[in-house]
Amino acid sequence: MRNTAIILAVVTLILLAIAYITGGFELVTEGFLTAGMTASQALLMIFAAFLVIGQLQTLVTSDMIKGWMQKYAGGRGIAISSIAGGLFPGGPYIFYPFLAGFKGKGISFYLLFSFVSGKQTYDFTRLPLEISLITPWIAILRNILTFPVPFIMGLISWRFFPQGVAGASWEEGE
Asked: Are residue 71 and residue 43 in the same domain, yes or no?
């Protein structure tokens, strides 16, 4: 964490120097205003996400999770988890805390891995942006070609890591 803060501070200072050299205090001030607007939008999203996460933690019990896991174990669970990951809105600052909220409720590692893989591979919410910035053909082709990836990753993790990853305490009771 400390190294990341140092790197960000150095990059920030370099960018501030470049902004000052190319545009003076006006460009630096404009950068600060843009950063403030972006932060205010992100903070609202993060706050709303944590409210949703808190409510889900309260409403979704361990017994419910265990029932779903018995009903949707194995390949069906991987498929549902992958698609759910692709449909989940928001960025990593929303869905990682969402997943962390279910820590200790008995979710299998392979389902978690399938969800994250589905989110990173599909992220259907960016499809309209891809279609508008590149051609629809390329966006659709990318989705078709990458469609099996989260399923394959989920199956691999189910096969080779049925008890989770060594050293990771995700499952309940570890």
From this structure: no
